[in-house]
Amino acid sequence: MAVPPIDGVLETALYVRDLDRSVAFFAETLGRPLLMRNARMAALDAGRRSVLLLFVAGGSADDMATPGGIIPGHDGSGRLHMAFAIAAVDYDPWQCHLTEQGIAITSEVRWPGGGRSLYFTDPDGHVLELATPGLWPVY
Hints:
The chain is built from two helices and ten strands, in the order βαββββββαβββ. It is an alpha+beta fold.
């Protein structure tokens, strides 16, 4: 029997110490629209049918009952990583925007396939990346 298809990554989660600070960073500084928020977590539009989930560190380690079923507990620690896809023409404008916002660019990479990446950190030290097409054979 063939493996059923997967249609991409829907959610990426980061675990943060200060939810207000992180929501402000992603919503205001990076322009990601807030989809929902409660005391435990926030969901932001990460573009193209993708959602960035910000959980209060340690606040989602236990299972959570919802009217529709149980969400298994999860948590993470350390410097986690995620990447946002950007168009090649938006690379320089993003570089300028980050600099204007006082966000240090920690690294830039030119990939063999022609893609480029900007790396920086969020307020919790998570490694964020803005990547243009050409990074992966599928992107």
